[in-house]
Amino acid sequence: MASPAAIGGGALGAAAIGVGGAYLAGAFEGKGDSEVEVEPNRVLLVNETDFSSVYSTADWIGKEYKNYLVAPIGSKGEGNLKTDNQKWWEWSYKRWQADSGKTDNDLSDEFKNKDKVSSDFSDSTATSNTSPKALNKVCEAVYKQNKSTITTLESSPDNQSRLKRDLFKYCSVLGEVKTISEAKEVYGSNTKGKEDANVKKFVAVNGNDKFWKVRNEEFYTDGDGDKSKSKVTDNSSNEFKVKSSENSRSEIRVICKEAYESGTTDTQNYPSADMEKFCTL
Where is this region: Disordered (predicted)? Predict the structure, then answer.
C-alpha cells in the first residue's frame, strides 16, 4: 500500500471532495473552520525505524492501522532520537483540551481528563503503565492494545466505540471517523446502506473528509497495496472496477455512496467483499 506518509498536514486539510453536494473540510473535528489551525506535518507509525520489531504482534491496534496513526515521537532515526512529531502532538492536544473541558464530555476512559492526559508531548522512550501521561504516550499505549478494545459492542455508547473515536481523533491523520449510523445518514428501504449490520461499519459519505481523501489516494496509487484498486474483484459488471477505470476514475467516496444506495440483492455491481475493503476503516 502506498502509505499516506508523505502527505503533509496541509494537504489533508484541503478542500473537501464533493458528492452530490458540499462537504465541510474538517467535519467531525469539533471546531469551525475559522478556529482550526493548519495541521503540522508528521511521521506516521509505519515509518518509525523500529516499527517492524516493536509492532510485530498481529492483533495490536498499531499493527492494523499503522498507515493512519501518528508515531509517538517521530522517525527515530539512527543514533539520535528525532522528535519530528512534537508540533503535531501539541496541535492535537489543543483539540483534546477543547473536548475534555466540556462538563458533559463523553471521552473514553483512556482519554477522560487530566488524570489520564497531563500534557501534549514527552520524548521519553520509557514505557509506563501509570497515569497521567503526555498525549503521545497515551496514544502509544493504545497502539499496543488488542484490536478487540476498539471493537464496538451492541450497547451504546460503550467504551470500545468511544475509544475508537478518540484514537482516530487525537492520534491519527484521519480525524474522527463516523459510520453511517453515527453520522445519522439515511438510505432507502432495501438498500445496503440501510441494513443494520452495514450502518455500524461502513464509513459515512457526509463528513469524514480526511478519511475519504486518504482512501482515494490509497485506491488510485499505483501498486499492490491492500486498499489499491488492483485488489478490486475482477468482474466486468463490478462498479468498483468500471468506475475506477482510466475513462472514469470516480472518487472512491462516490463509488461507496452508490454502493450504499444499491439494493441488498445486488451482489454483482457492488460486491460485499469490495465494500468491506474500500468503504470501511
Answer: 223-248
